[in-house]
């Protein structure tokens, strides 16, 4: 008897009759993954480029510059996480395996928790900036 996680995907209409569509959707999901990675890298580069010069200014201005940089980085991280979730949903829809569905559930929960706390931190930084 197979365990719940070992229950694999079965041939579906998509896989059996529309293999080109499945392949295209896999490429689209891979493209979305690459876009998410590009967003994260771009956000990290912008963060580094904005933090480095702030080390040369007085402490009060440095804190404001650091908070602004963290705010911008957080936006990039949240956008990247959203794109990764989209890609994971596409992969899971194509796979139809119970194990993949459970893995997707775990990923979405982890990413939602990260997003929640990151969003709270960004809101706190924004309040400090404006208030």
UniProtKB/TrEMBL annotation:
A Pfam family hit: DUF1622
Keyword Transmembrane among record annotations: yes
Residue stretches spanning the membrane: 27-52, 73-90, 96-118
Record keyword Endoplasmic reticulum present: no
Source superkingdom: Bacteria
Keywords: Membrane, Transmembrane, Transmembrane helix
Entry protein name: DUF1622 domain-containing protein
Organism per entry: Pseudoponticoccus marisrubri
Lineage: Bacteria, Pseudomonadati, Pseudomonadota, Alphaproteobacteria, Rhodobacterales
């Amino acid at each position: 008897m197979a365990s719940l996680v070992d229950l694999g995907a079965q041939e579906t209409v998509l896989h059996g009759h529309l293999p080109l569509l499945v392949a295209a959707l896999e490429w689209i999901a891979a493209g979305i993954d690459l876009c998410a990675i590009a967003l994260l890298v771009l956000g990290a580069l912008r963060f580094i480029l904005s933090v480095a010069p702030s080390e040369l200014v007085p402490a009060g201005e440095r804190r404001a510059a650091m908070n602004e940089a963290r705010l911008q980085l957080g936006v990039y991280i949240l956008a990247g996480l959203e794109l990764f979730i989209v890609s994971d949903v596409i992969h899971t829809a194509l796979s139809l395996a119970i194990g993949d569905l459970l893995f997707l559930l775990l990923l979405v929960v982890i990413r939602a928790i990260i997003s929640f706390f990151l969003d709270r931190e960004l809101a706190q930084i924004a309040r400090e900036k404006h208030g």
